[in-house]
Each structure stands twice: as C-alpha cells, then as structure tokens.
Amino acid sequence: MAAAATLRLTIPLAFSFSIHPLTSSHLRFPASKSIGSEAASFRTVKMAATAGSDPETTSSTSRIIDSHLHIWASPQEAATYPYFPGQEPTLTGDVEFLLKNMEDARVDGALIVQPINHKFDHSLVTSVLKKHPSKFVGCCLANPAEDGSGIKELENLVLESNYRAVRFNPYLWPSGQKMTNAVGKAMFSKAGELGVPVGFMCMKGLHLHIAEIEELCTEFPNTTVLLDHAGFCKVPENGEAKDTYTQLIELSRFPQVYVKFSALFRISRTGFPYQDLTPLLSQVVSNFGANRVMWGSDFPFVVLECGYKEAKEAVTIIAKQASLSSSDMDWILGKTVMQLFPGQWVLP
C-alpha cells in the first residue's frame, strides 16, 4: 500500500475551479422522454469504457451508499410540498424515481441533501426519511438568518427527525457576510455539539471560501466537515494555476475534513466515464486516505448527464485507472459514509 501511495503522488496535476451552474437550460421535464433519449447517446461510450472492467469492486458484504443526492416533489406532490418561489425544478427528482434508479444500480442507501427547490421547508425530505428510515439519512440546509433562528431550526431537525448532517451554502448568507459571522460560527459549533457533519457547497470556487473553512476548522476542531463535489475542483485547461487544487489537498491537514468524490460531471472536462479525474482521485486518496473519501452521484442532475448507474460505474473505472485497492473502493463506495453515520446502514 505504501508503494502504491507513492506512485499515486507522482501523477502530474493541475486543477482549478469553475462554476457548473444548475441552470434549467439543459434539464427539462418530463424526464421520461429526455432521459431515455439522452441515455441512448451514452450507450456506445459506456460499452467502450467498461469493456474489460471488473464489475465486482467491493466485497460481498459491503454496502454501496450514495453520499450526495437530492429529491424534490413531483408536480403532483407540489400542492402538499410546494416549491420555493422561483426554484421550481425542471427535471424529475421525486423519491419513487430515485428508488427505481437505486434499485437498478444496486445502491443500498443514501444521504439526501435538502434541495434549494424547497429551501428551508424540510417537510418533503422529512416525510421520506420517516417512510424509509433504514435507507436514507437527511442533510438539512442551514438557515443563516441574522436573528439566529436557524440555530434552533438545526437543533430541532437533528433531534426530532433523521437529519444527521447540515449543508452550509455560502450564497444564502446575508449580502456582504461570511460563513464565519456570529451566526455561522454558532451553527458550526452547534453541529459539532450535535455530532453532525457540515457540508460546504462552494459552487463558485473553493478559493472564495477557503479562508472561512480553515478558520472554522481551526476554531472548532470537533465539527466534521464534508467538501461537496471535491470542492468543485474542476480539471483545468491550458495549464491553469494549481493554487486552488493545492488548497483542497492542504485541507487534509485537518483530520475532521472529508471529501465527497461526487458529481463527477461537474468537475470533469470530458464525458463519461470522466477519466480525466484519475489524478484527482489518486491524490485525494493519497493525502486524505480512502477512509475520508466517499462517492456521491448528485442525483437527479446526473441522470441526464450520464445516468445514475453509470455514475457509480464511473468512479469504479477511475479507481481502477488510479490503481486503487479493493479495500480503498470499499471505503469510497460505502464504508466512509457509514463510518460517519454509525448504525444507519447495517451490514448483512
């Protein structure tokens, strides 16, 4: 293992960040039509990419857990679970559609991240957590209201429902304020007290928020941190500076920081199976350790990008190219997130 780690460190790297907006321009209802036609275009690519690959990437007793996905109400459910004004979804993302995709891909469980489509109204996700308590864990959305009411909201969601993580979206903070303001620090500290990890969504670039993350990690070392989508560290073009990528890797010095190797389509510059991310995965595992790295799909957005099942296959292909061990893959595909939420998904 030591030799393998050394080899992985020698892979040349140059990573940077850019925005992959969740716009409606490339995602449309109804998914039943778009997804079928879109998936067909990937069939040939998938067959070529997976030829000769080993489908058995984990041990027979391992669970496959998706560390990052979203759900929202179907149009029929919207009367009961209304969308936040201006955030109406443009693709299918209801729980029944998710369950079908998970079954087809043989994914055993998932962490549901509260979507912006319902903003701070957690009633839909809460209902799903109650209906499927052994399959899903909830990640609520932090409300950084200046009156501090979000601190109590966080506590209630954790103690009264099956929410075991919280997402910090820096773009929801009041204009001109940072996640390190009084409310942000109070919520981050409360998360540590409650034993729930804080996920950071740095969609516009990790470099814009790295100082805040480092300050919070330093001041509150007992609060676990999840970096969504590898900090949105996108593969560079034309020799872009590696500064932001270096910042991502240097966060490994904080033992509380974990990396979601998720939403690969957002950080790759190639199509499925996103093999330009091989150096990134190799270096993240070498520096953080596989037990601090976890796979996530970013359902339902990934469905139109490559397909849900293919999202799981992609990380397997990348890991094989990076010469990761089967033990590493057990961690990345399930054990890491299971370690963070003990007792949630029980091994057979």
UniProtKB/TrEMBL annotation:
**SUPFAM superfamilies for this protein:** Metallo-dependent hydrolases (SSF51556)
One Pfam family per UniProt: Amidohydro_2
Q: Does the keyword Acyltransferase apply?
A: no
Q: Where is the Amidohydrolase-related domain?
A: 65-341
Q: Tell me the keywords, alphabetical order.
A: Decarboxylase, Lyase
Q: Which PANTHER family match?
A: 2-AMINO-3-CARBOXYLMUCONATE-6-SEMIALDEHYDE DECARBOXYLASE, CATALYTIC_ HYDROLASE
UniProt record similarity statement = Belongs to the metallo-dependent hydrolases superfamily.
Its recorded name reads Amidohydrolase-related domain-containing protein
Source species: Brassica carinata (Ethiopian mustard)
